[in-house]
Design a protein that fits this description.
Order of helices and strands: HEHHEHEHEEEEEHEHEHEH
Largest sheet: 9 strands, mixed
Number of strands: 11
Distance between the termini: 20 Å
Protein name: Phosphatase
Structural class: alpha/beta
Helix content: 40-55%
Number of helices: 9
Organism: Streptomyces spiramenti
């Protein structure tokens, strides 16, 4: 793994992303990607991540075309099984766009909410971003107490909104936890966030509410890429969202924060 004692250059980060399989030849197989694109196109709301896609993406080949453009999966519709890819150049380009949004939030002393539906992989990434924004003078949204969704609890750790069930943090695609937060804040006299930095349904729901949103998404999670394509979501960063060790994301996080001048 790239040493965390310094920020990687762009070329060093590209090499690291491929070596750690955050991008390049990723672990998610082609069959799984195509199955998810098909479910989204068939109108299965589980795969919409809280984004209202209407009937605009009823052709899975249209979904594949956007995923090839914004994520870097194989564009050939005849490639039905085996290895699929995320283009590391697209990952770094999206990180640069995400950094611009973080830098703007810091300059504006914005009100920010960070959240993850993938705590096993991305919790520390979001926590480091939250800490850097707080240090820059941003106000981090505090999740109201007592919120529940999907038979679990909506809570917050290290400044990051998460979903807890049975005393454990759960992986979730659901937009319901974010919906609960966005509904509760006005009831408590609190403003909505100016920026949401999240993934999965947390990001999709926030973007659908008209909040400037930066999200992470895997090659089998097309909804956020479609939301960026349509302009609903500001930036979608393509990556494998659960690699072998969450520490493999540390060089990426260092690059992101440095690009945002938050390091």
């Amino acid at each position: 793994m790239f040493p965390v004692s310094r920020v990687p250059s762009r070329d060093e980060l590209l090499d690291h992303l491929v070596g750690a399989r955050i991008a390049g030849d990723v672990a998610t197989p082609r069959e799984n990607n195509l199955a998810h694109y098909r479910e989204l196109a068939n109108g299965n709301p589980y795969y919409w991540f809280g984004v209202d896609l209407g009937d605009r993406w009823a052709d899975e080949q249209d979904v594949l075309a956007v995923m090839a453009e914004l994520c870097g999966v194989n564009e050939d519709p005849g490639h039905r099984a085996g290895q699929d890819t995320i283009d590391p150049e697209l990952t770094v380009a999206a990180l640069d766009r995400a950094a611009a949004e973080l830098g703007k939030a810091a300059a504006d002393r914005a009100r920010v909410l960070t959240a993850t539906g993938h705590p096993g992989g991305l919790l520390d990434v979001h926590a480091q971003v939250a800490a850097a924004l707080r240090a820059a003078g941003c106000e981090l949204v505090r999740v109201p107490l007592g919120l529940t969704a999907d038979q679990g609890v909506v809570t917050q750790l290290a400044g990051v909104a998460v979903y807890e069930r049975g005393a454990s943090l759960w992986h979730t695609h659901s937009p319901a936890p974010m919906s609960e937060i966005l509904g509760a804040l006005p009831r408590e006299g609190e403003a909505l966030p100016d920026l949401v930095f999240a993934d999965h349904g947390w990001a999709g729901c926030a973007a659908q509410h008209g909040i400037t949103t930066v999200g992470f998404a895997d090659s089998n999670d097309p909804a956020l890429f479609l939301a960026e394509h349509e302009g609903t979501l500001k930036v979608c960063v393509p990556l494998d969202d659960h690699v072998v060790n969450p520490r493999f994301y540390e060089p990426m996080t260092a690059y992101l924060l440095a690009a945002a001048e938050l390091g």
